[in-house]
Structures are given as structure tokens and as C-alpha cells.
């Protein structure tokens, strides 16, 4: 009897709030932010006002201390309205999570407390120009000098980097040690020697800001280090094991939007004297979209539930959820364009943006090839 | 000071409503706090924030009304009183029960929606006022609390009038009164612990309804898709368009 798929009353209210906010505030402005490559800061402020920003900050640091199930509820709704916008709060949780995992109580209060006091963001700086999937090959150098570390190097593709209060930076004190030589450290953006270049021309998710960060002899106190020297790579992986679940949730939202728009359009559009919804070829597309959407959603909730219970099974489950949901959402967005015919190909309708946006969900927080490596490793590990 | 908002739970305007054997079937519809009542909830929260006191939400409706009440509590109201009764009950009968709750609560100011979205009635506010013998100001677009009285702007078809009214009094809302806030996530979590007192309508001596709904039907909107050929005589086509917009569509 223990199996129970229901949300609590508060989770239902949270869903209703997120859905309403997404529908009334986010969706109507999504196309404009996308076209202008503009950060929707006023939406970030509103998200803060209604309490949906940085929800995982623990109660001791002044936050709500909520888990991944709540994040997934929000992620689906915001992803439905604008995946590009959702990446902003999602990447902030990505910056918060290493501190939750490896931070001391003092560090949680010092770094996360301020995130609850005003609209503000965190960021996570792992990828570099020369390496993404092979994160242990990172080259950003960190050298200890007395009570300080000195950081030099370039980070690439970092979401929220400049808007954030701080980036959790992964740097190596000895590249020959590969993953054993990595330090995770919180680097505030107002430190001397930090500069940003915004990356322009993204295919989708153009509302979400992405940066190259240059650290030029940046001095950071030792108290900013998370965990031990050499624990940084592990912290990064433990983080991604959790935070790729919201990527799945955003994908579910995109797929739901693709289906909503497609079903509506199919009933309205006529060809050969009847609504195209009468054609089985269209009906089968809708049915496939629905099958992908429902299975991805329930599996995403499952992965979030495992992660919230700290069940080690979440490592494989989060990889499955992320890869599966982002692929079925890409498929759904593609079919939505097809159902819209010529109109699907232009930005007067919202469906072409769904495809452009959700492509990224197959790439960031570990490409879907890397997810398959994680899934396979867990299958084989169990047998060895 | 005590401020009360009378609220209702109604189907979301975006939901598709079905009828089943001549009756509206709400199964699967999203039910929300009536948007006209949101102005009422916002107003009592503002009054409380500005002047202190207590903001109380009161409702008459089925058990599920508790969900809408939690939304009002998540916006910032302090507690709720829910008179429970299943099925349709006419506004005058509802007002009889609500008046008993209000007589006991003894608020200074009562707000409720100018119109109830589900039964499309505008009667609840005035009927409550009538049952209590309190003054009633409908379609309020501005409100200012004084000492033992209030100043309110009341919308008229072709303008507005400003009235001064002795309290306690009942006010019904109109768009423009305020900009209702969203509930917040911390508010949702706090609302869980706020009190909702439930009283069965029968306990207040109220049963049945003076009006019974015999049958309901849904209006079918038909698209006329009238296309006027503007290629031959554009001036005449424009005149025809204006005429249709004025006489048929009645939007001009
Ligand atoms: C808009 C955007 C936002 C981002 N935000 C962040 C952020 O906030 N923080 C951050 O740290 N990073 C961020 N990233 C970086 C992102 O995580 C990386 O792009 C991603 O991990 C892939 O790395 P890469 O681009 O270097 O591709 P590569 O690692 O060069 O991979 C290229 C291709 O090779 C495949 N491949 C690589 N290794 C293997 C293998 N062993 N087996 C099979 N196939 C393999 C990959 O799957 C991919 O298809 C962001 C990226 C983008 C585009
Ligand atoms: C950039 C661009 C350039 C173009 N250039 C030209 C051009 O130079 N000249 C020109 O004449 N046209 C041109 N077109 C129009 C193009 O050929 C049409 O968009 C295409 O034929 C589809 O028609 P539609 O958009 O009206 O979609 P619809 O006909 O409305 O189709 C909508 C969906 O219903 C499906 N469908 C329709 N009927 C059936 C059925 N019986 N059974 C199963 N499925 C069905 C379709 O496959 C599609 O998925 C262009 C379109 C674009 C976007």
C-alpha cells in the first residue's frame, strides 16, 4: 500500500501558484525576451516576491529548505511558459547545491542567507573553453598563498555568471592529479580580477544569460573553500546527480506546452474540409507526445523523490530522467512544428521556440551521451 | 479593527466546463478563488497591514471551498470560517447563514466580490448587508477607512460617486479597487497552520435553497467569419465593416 503518487495540499497550492504565475506573467513575455536576448530581471524579482526563487536554501540560513519534488513542480510550470527563463532560477539552484552538499553551517549562512534577502542568484562554474564533458581535465589553476587562494583561468558557458552574487568555481591545484586535484570554492563577483563576456547568438534559451568568466589572479580567502582540497570534483558530481532532475522537469514543461499548442491548433486548422485533428496521422502524433510526456513526468517525480530521500538510486534515476525527458521533449517540440505546418516554422506561433530552447536540455548539466555513460556504469557496477 | 472578506470557490475561467444531463459537471475543472473576491481579500489584508487588527475570510460553500480559503490565507489573511453546504444554495439563503457568522464576528468592514463568477449573481453582498441591516456599497473602486465611517467610490454606469458610510458596512468589489497580490510560497506553508473553523449550514438553522436549478446549458460560441471584400470599393467595405461592428458585434 505504500505506493502513493499524490501531492500534499501545499504542493498542490504551490503548483497552482507556479502555474498561474507562469501563465499570467512569464508566457506573455517569453517571445519578446527571446528575440531581444534580454534577461527578464523583473520576472526574477517577481519570482523572489512570491517565494519561488532559491527555494532550497535551508531554514537555518533564512530559506524554505524545500527539496527537489518542489523544484520539479515549479520547473514544469516555468518550463511550460519559457524554458529560457526557467534556466535562470534552475542555474541558481545549481550554484546553491554544492554549498548544501559540502558547505559548513557558517558557509551556508554566509553565502546562502543573502540569497533570501533580495532577488539574487548563484552560479556554478565548471565548464571551460577546452573541456565540458571531461570535467576532470579542467585547467583553471588555484594556488594557495597563506590564508588565501589565487585563482587564474577561464570558465565557459556559465549561466547567470554575471548576474549572480557568486560563482562556485572548480579549479585545480595540480592538473596531473586530474579529478583528485580539484578544489570547489565560492568566488564572489565583486573580487578584484573577475571579468565577464556575455555569449551572444544562442540558438535558444536566449533569455537566460550565459558568460565566459575570466579569473585573473583573483584572491579568495581559504574560508571560501567547500570541503577539502581535492574534494571538488566529487562535490561537482554529487551536485549534478541532483540538479539534472530540474532539467528533466523543465523538459516535461516544454513537452506539455508542445502538446497543448498542438491539440488546440489541430482542432482549429482545417484541411480537406475538416479539422486536421480528424486525421489519424495527426492523432497518432498527439498520442505519442502524450505517452512521452506522461512517462517522463512520472519518472522525473520518481527521481526527485529518490533524491529527496537521499537514496543512492537517484544517481542513475536522475540521469535517466534528464536524458529521457529532454529527448521526448525535443521530439514533442519537433512534432508540434510539424502539426503547425508552415505556421510552425515562424515565430508568430510559440512552437519553433520550444524546439530551439529544449535542444539545450540535451546538452547542459552533462550531455545525454554522458547520462548514458552514468546509467551504464551503474548497471555494470552492480554486477562487478 | 476587524475586516472580513466573503469568498467563493469557482471554476477557473480557462477551464473547459462540461454539462452532464442538464447539469454543470465540475469534475476535472480547476477551481480557484473567485477573481472578484481576490480584490476583497487584497483589500482586507491591506487594511490590516495599514491599521492593524485582524483579516478574516468567511465563506459559504461545499467542503472543497477550503482550498480557496487556503489561497486567501496564503495571501496573508489570518484565519477562516467556512459554512459548509453541498449543492446549489441561492444567495439570499447563503446570506442568512453568513449573517449569523458575521453577527458573531462583529467586523467593522466586510468586502465581497461584486459578482460571483459561477452563478453570475451580484446578490451576495447586498443580501448579506440586508440580513444584517447594514449599509451596502456595491462596485467599489476606492476605499478609505475613517473613524467609525469609511469613504468609498462607487462605480456607476456613466461615472462614479463618492460616498461616506457609517460602519459596519458591506462593500462589493469592482476591478480597479486594487491589484491583488499572488499568494507566496512561504504564505502557503504558513497557511497550513492557520485556523479554518467549519460550521455545517444546518447548525446555523439553514437548509435547502429557495431557488433550485432545474437545467443548465452551455452557450455555444459560433464563429461567423464574415469576410467583406475590400478590393472593389474600399470605402463602402469600410462603412459596411463599421456597421457590422456596431450593429452585429456591438463592440463599437
Ligand atoms: C547555454 C549553456 C549554458 C550552460 N551553463 C553552464 C553552467 O551554468 N555551468 C557550467 O559549468 N557549464 C554550463 N554549460 C556547459 C555545458 O554543461 C557543456 O556544454 C556540456 O557539459 C558539454 O560540454 P562541451 O560543450 O565541452 O562538449 P564536449 O564535451 O566537447 O562534447 C562534444 C560531444 O562529444 C560527446 N562526448 C564527449 N565525451 C564523450 C564520451 N566519453 N562518450 C561519448 N560521447 C562523448 C558529447 O556528448 C557531445 O556530444 C552550459 C552550456 C550552454 C550551451
Ligand atoms: C518558409 C516557407 C516557404 C514556403 N514557400 C512556398 C512557396 O514558395 N510556394 C508555395 O506555394 N508554398 C510555400 N510554402 C508553403 C508550404 O508548402 C506549406 O506550408 C505546406 O504545404 C503545408 O501547408 P500548411 O502550412 O497550410 O499546413 P496544413 O496543410 O495546414 O497542414 C498542417 C498539418 O496537417 C497535416 N495534414 C494536412 N492534411 C493531412 C491529411 N490529409 N492527412 C494527414 N495529415 C495531414 C500536415 O502534414 C501538417 O502536419 C512555404 C512555407 C514556408 C514555411
Structural overview:
The complex is a heterodimer of chains A (384) and B (252). Chain A has 384 residues and is α+β, with helices and mostly antiparallel strands. Chain A folds into 3 domains: 9-116, Acyl-CoA dehydrogenase/oxidase, N-terminal domain (Butyryl-Coa Dehydrogenase, subunit A, domain 1, Orthogonal Bundle), CATH 1.10.540; 122-232, Butyryl-CoA Dehydrogenase, subunit A, domain 2, CATH 2.40.110; 233-381, Butyryl-CoA Dehydrogenase, subunit A, domain 3. Chain A is built from 9 helices and 10 strands. Chain A has helices at 9-36, 41-49, 68-102, 105-112, 232-268, 280-308, 314-339, 351-359, 368-381; strands at 122-125, 141-145, 148-159, 166-172, 182-188, 194-198, 210-221, 225-226, 270-271, 274-275. A 4-stranded mixed β-sheet of chain A has the order 1-4-5-8. Chain A has a 4-stranded antiparallel β-sheet with strand order 2-3-7-6, with helices on one face. In chain A, strands 9-10 form a two-stranded antiparallel ribbon. In chain A, helix 3 (68-102) runs antiparallel to helix 5 (232-268) and helix 6 (280-308) packs antiparallel against helix 7 (314-339). Chain A is globular, with a radius of gyration of 21 Å. Chain B contains 6 helices and 13 strands. In chain B, 29% of the residues lie in helices and 29% in strands. In chain B, a hairpin with a 2-residue loop joins strand 10 (149-156) and strand 11 (159-166). In chain B, the strands form 3 sheets. Chain B has a 9-stranded mixed β-sheet, with helices on both faces. Chain B has a two-stranded antiparallel ribbon with strand order 2-5. Chain B has a two-stranded antiparallel sheet with strand order 3-4. The mean pLDDT of chain B is 92. Chain B has 252 residues and is α/β, with parallel strands linked by helices. Chain B folds into 2 domains: 2-204, Rossmann fold; 222-252, no CATH class. In chain B, helix 2 (65-75) crosses helix 5. At the A-B interface, helix 1 of A face helix 2 and helix 5 of B. Bound molecules: flavin-adenine dinucleotide (2 copies). One flavin-adenine dinucleotide (FAD) is lined by residues 91, 124-127, 131-133, 157-159, 202, 205, 210, 360, 363-367, 369-370 of chain A.
Amino acid at each position: 500500500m505504500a505506493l502513493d503518487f499524490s501531492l500534499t495540499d501545499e504542493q498542490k497550492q504551490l503548483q497552482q501558484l507556479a502555474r498561474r504565475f507562469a501563465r499570467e506573467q512569464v508566457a506573455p513575455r517569453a517571445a519578446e525576451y527571446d528575440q531581444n536576448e534580454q534577461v527578464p530581471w523583473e520576472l526574477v524579482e517577481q519570482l523572489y516576491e512570491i517565494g519561488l526563487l532559491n527555494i532550497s536554501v535551508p531554514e537555518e540560513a533564512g530559506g524554505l529548505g524545500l527539496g527537489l519534488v518542489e523544484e520539479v513542480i515549479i520547473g514544469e510550470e516555468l518550463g511550460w511558459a519559457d524554458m529560457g527563463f526557467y534556466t535562470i532560477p534552475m542555474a541558481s539552484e545549481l550554484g546553491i547545491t554544492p554549498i548544501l552538499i559540502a558547505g559548513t553551517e557558517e558557509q551556508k549562512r554566509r553565502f546562502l542567507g543573502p540569497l533570501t534577502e533580495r532577488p539574487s542568484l548563484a552560479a556554478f562554474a565548471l565548464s571551460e573553453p577546452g573541456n565540458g564533458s571531461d570535467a576532470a581535465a579542467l585547467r583553471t589553476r588555484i594556488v594557495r598563498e597563506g590564508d588565501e587562494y589565487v585563482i587564474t583561468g577561464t570558465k565557459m558557458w556559465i549561466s547567470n555568471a554575471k548576474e549572480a552574487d557568486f560563482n562556485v568555481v572548480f579549479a585545480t591545484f595540480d592538473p596531473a592529479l586530474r579529478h583528485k586535484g580539484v578544489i570547489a570554492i565560492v568566488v564572489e563577483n565583486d573580487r578584484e580580477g573577475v571579468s565577464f563576456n556575455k555569449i551572444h547568438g544562442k540558438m535558444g534559451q536566449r533569455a537566460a544569460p550565459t558568460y565566459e568568466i575570466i579569473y585573473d589572479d583573483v584572491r579568495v580567502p581559504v574560508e571560501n573553500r567547500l570541503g577539502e582540497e581535492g574534494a571538488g570534483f566529487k562535490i561537482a558530481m554529487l551536485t549534478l546527480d541532483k540538479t539534472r532532475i530540474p532539467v528533466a522537469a523543465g523538459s516535461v514543461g516544454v513537452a506539455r506546452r508542445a502538446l497543448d499548442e498542438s491539440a488546440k491548433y489541430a482542432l482549429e486548422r482545417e484541411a480537406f474540409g475538416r479539422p486536421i485533428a480528424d486525421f489519424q496521422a495527426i492523432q497518432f502524433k498527439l498520442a505519442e507526445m502524450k505517452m512521452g510526456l506522461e512517462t517522463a513526468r512520472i519518472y522525473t517525480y520518481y527521481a526527485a523523490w529518490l533524491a529527496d530521500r537521499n537514496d543512492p538510486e537517484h544517481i542513475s534515476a536522475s540521469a535517466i530522467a534528464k536524458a529521457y525527458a529532454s529527448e521526448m521533449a525535443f521530439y514533442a517540440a519537433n512534432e508540434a512544428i510539424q502539426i503547425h505546418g508552415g505556421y510552425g516554422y515562424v515565430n508568430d506561433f510559440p512552437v519553433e521556440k520550444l524546439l530551439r530552447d529544449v535542444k539545450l536540455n540535451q546538452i547542459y548539466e552533462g550531455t545525454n551521451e554522458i547520462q548514458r555513460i552514468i546509467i551504464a556504469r551503474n548497471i555494470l557496477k552492480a554486477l562487478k | 479593527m476587524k475586516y472580513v472578506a466573503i469568498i467563493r470557490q469557482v471554476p477557473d475561467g480557462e477551464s473547459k466546463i462540461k454539462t452532464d444531463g442538464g447539469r454543470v459537471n465540475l469534475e476535472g475543472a480547476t477551481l480557484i478563488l473567485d477573481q472578484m473576491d481576490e480584490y476583497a481579500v487584497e483589500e482586507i489584508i491591506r487594511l490590516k497591514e495599514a491599521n492593524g487588527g485582524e483579516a478574516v475570510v468567511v465563506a459559504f460553500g461545499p467542503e472543497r471551498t477550503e482550498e480557496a480559503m487556503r489561497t486567501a490565507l496564503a495571501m496573508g489573511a489570518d484565519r477562516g470560517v467556512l459554512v459548509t453546504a453541498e449543492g446549489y444554495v441561492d444567495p439570499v439563503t447563503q446570506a442568512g447563514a453568513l449573517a449569523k457568522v458575521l453577527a458573531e464576528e462583529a467586523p467593522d468592514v466586510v468586502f465581497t466580490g461584486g459578482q460571483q463568477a459561477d452563478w453570475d449573481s451580484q446578490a451576495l453582498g447586498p443580501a448579506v448587508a440586508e440580513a444584517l441591516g447594514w449599509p451596502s456599497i456595491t462596485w467599489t473602486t476606492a476605499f478609505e477607512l475613517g473613524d467609525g465611517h469609511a469613504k468609498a467610490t462607487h462605480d456607476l454606469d456613466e461615472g462614479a460617486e463618492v460616498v461616506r458610510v457609517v460602519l459596519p458596512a458591506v462593500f462589493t468589489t469592482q476591478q480597479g479597487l486594487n491589484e491583488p497580490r499572488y499568494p507566496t510560497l512561504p504564505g502557503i506553508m504558513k497557511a497550513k497552520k492557520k485556523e479554518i473553523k467549519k460550521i455545517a449550514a444546518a447548525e446555523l438553522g439553514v437548509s435547502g435553497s429557495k431557488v433550485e436549478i432545474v437545467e443548465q446549458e452551455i452557450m455555444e460560441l459560433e464563429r461567423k467569419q464574415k469576410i467583406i471584400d475590400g478590393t472593389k470599393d474600399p470605402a463602402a467595405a469600410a462603412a459596411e465593416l463599421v456597421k457590422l461592428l456596431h450593429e452585429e458585434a456591438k463592440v463599437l
